[in-house]
């Protein structure tokens, strides 16, 4: 390799080692490993259950009911779980030790579409306020 890299290249009419010395001034460092992984790996998909939730790392997170049966992807930061449908962010949950992680709007939609069908929004919100702590304690 040393012999070849010290000879004049037919393609550039330059010595590769000499050209490399000039070009290194313009090279940037490689991005961190997480960014590199994003180029070669596909995000894992999570199917939204009938209860309008996904299970991620042993915990459940709510999403809007229109996503029931569809697949979403998840990214996370130190503080938040971000849930995407296609490329759209559909829900952001603060990381917590709770098993069930509901967004209040999702909870209203979920109850309105099933268990509390026909109830007024105020009645559903009162039900949530009175019972959400019980869900957390399960």
Q: What can you tell me about this protein's structure?
A:
By secondary structure, the protein is an alpha+beta fold. Helix content is 34%, strand content 23%. It contains 5 helices and 7 strands, in the order H-H-H-E-E-E-E-E-E-E-H-H. The strands form 2 sheets. Strands 1-4-5-6 form a 4-stranded antiparallel sheet, with no helix packed on it. Strand 4 (71-76) and strand 5 (80-85) form a beta hairpin. Helix 4 packs across helix 5. The radius of gyration is 26 Å and the shape is rod-shaped. The mean pLDDT is 86.
Descriptive labels:
3-stranded mixed beta sheet; alpha+beta; 138 residues
Summary, kept brief:
This protein is of the alpha+beta class and 138 residues long. It is 34% helix and 23% strand.
């Amino acid at each position: 390799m040393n012999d070849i890299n010290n000879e004049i290249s037919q393609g550039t009419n330059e010595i590769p080692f000499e050209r490399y010395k000039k070009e290194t001034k313009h090279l940037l460092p490689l991005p961190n490993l997480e960014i590199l992984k994003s180029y070669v790996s596909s995000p894992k998909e999570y199917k939204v259950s009938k209860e309008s939730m996904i299970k991620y790392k042993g915990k459940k997170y709510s999403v809007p009911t229109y996503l029931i049966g569809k697949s979403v992807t998840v990214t996370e930061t130190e503080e938040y779980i971000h849930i995407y449908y296609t490329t759209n962010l559909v829900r952001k949950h603060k990381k917590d030790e709770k098993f069930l992680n509901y967004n209040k709007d999702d909870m209203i939609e979920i109850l309105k579409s099933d268990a509390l069908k026909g109830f007024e929004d105020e009645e559903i919100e009162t039900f949530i306020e009175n019972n959400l702590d019980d869900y957390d304690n399960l």
